[in-house]
Amino acid sequence: MKTTFEIAIFEGDGIGPEIMAPTLDLLRGLAVEGGYDFSFKDAPAGAAHYQQTGDSFPAASMATARGADAILLSAMGLPDVRYPDGTEISPQIDLRKALTLFAGVRPVTIRPGQPTPLATDKPVDFVLIRESTEGLFYTQGRGEVEADEARETLRITRAISEPLFKFAFDLAASRKAAGRGPGKVTCVDKANVFRAFAFFREMFDAEAARHPDIAADHAYVDATALWMVERPWTFDVMVTENMFGDILSDLGAGLMGGLGLAPSADIGHDHAVFQPCHGSAPDIAGQGVANPMAMILSAAMMLDWLGARNGVDAMTADGARLRDAVDRVVAERRVLTRDLGGTAGTADVAMAVKEALS
Ligand code: ATP
Ligand code: MG
What we know:
This protein is of the alpha/beta class. The protein has helices spanning 16-34, 47-53, 59-67, 91-98, 158-177, 195-209, 221-230, 242-255, 293-310, 313-332, 346-357; strands at residues 4-10, 37-42, 70-73, 103-110, 124-131, 144-145, 150-151, 184-189, 215-220, 237-240, 263-267, 272-276.
């Protein structure tokens, strides 16, 4: 059994290095106890690297990412460092394209003690899967613009949709096995209006038929937006097109009371990137006050994915332990950063999570 894992580390810009260091420290501790091993490979890239070298994403860093078992990324890009044509520096988007990371995974979890605009104390824990390579983003930057008309294309393919739906049902099954969900996948679309979405739904139904033990249903995207606010606890796994997923994942972040506790994963056939939903937060960089929890929760998703993929049960169990430890620190409300209403620093929070593990 494979027990040593090479992880490419993109610590990037702004608060990136500050939240990455304590996360790697937690992972090292878990690995020692769990009988598996990490080899962390630094992959320089991002806006500061561009400023220093004129190259935002060196070929060597891409090679490190390709060769790794998984990729951990904290944050890349700075608002005032751009390419000469004015576009933002975001190597994470290059990674998504180069490695065909088609499934954007965004857990929406509202823990006890977590600030949320929802007036409910029901626990919310569902996962939004956003297709990330085609859909309405397919013509990104290549739309047709004429004097009095502009067009973009909505593209849905079998090559991407079939593995996307398989991933969604497998995730629902593993959540069910772990006691985290009832085992249900909701296809979010607009199949009543667009033929491309009827096609999307057909492929979803075909995959659903292969999973008799997992429930499957459909919802229109507009109704989904309403239900995410009115009764979010009824969702388990939700899978949708790129643009719909883009919008719904911000709605999800809103329900979670901000970005400080929002992890994500971008998953393909052979590669996966795990990173917090927030950006590089240059306004608080270098002060030691950034919340490391979204980064830590992203690392927990990496443990889930690597553990399941390689049959390392100790790793899968550690993913759950790490999440439970964060839950406990949030619920106690004793050691929290400013974004969650506390006064603690990054290192204090990381230490509290470490203590909550044991
Ligand atoms: P991007 O353009 O990269 O998506 P953004 O400009 O939308 O990023 P962030 O960099 O995520 O935004 O920052 C938005 C706000 O949230 C800032 O005020 C920032 O300080 C705060 N913030 C983001 N991440 C954290 C964190 N981990 N801890 C505390 N505050 C954070
Ligand atoms: Mg920004």
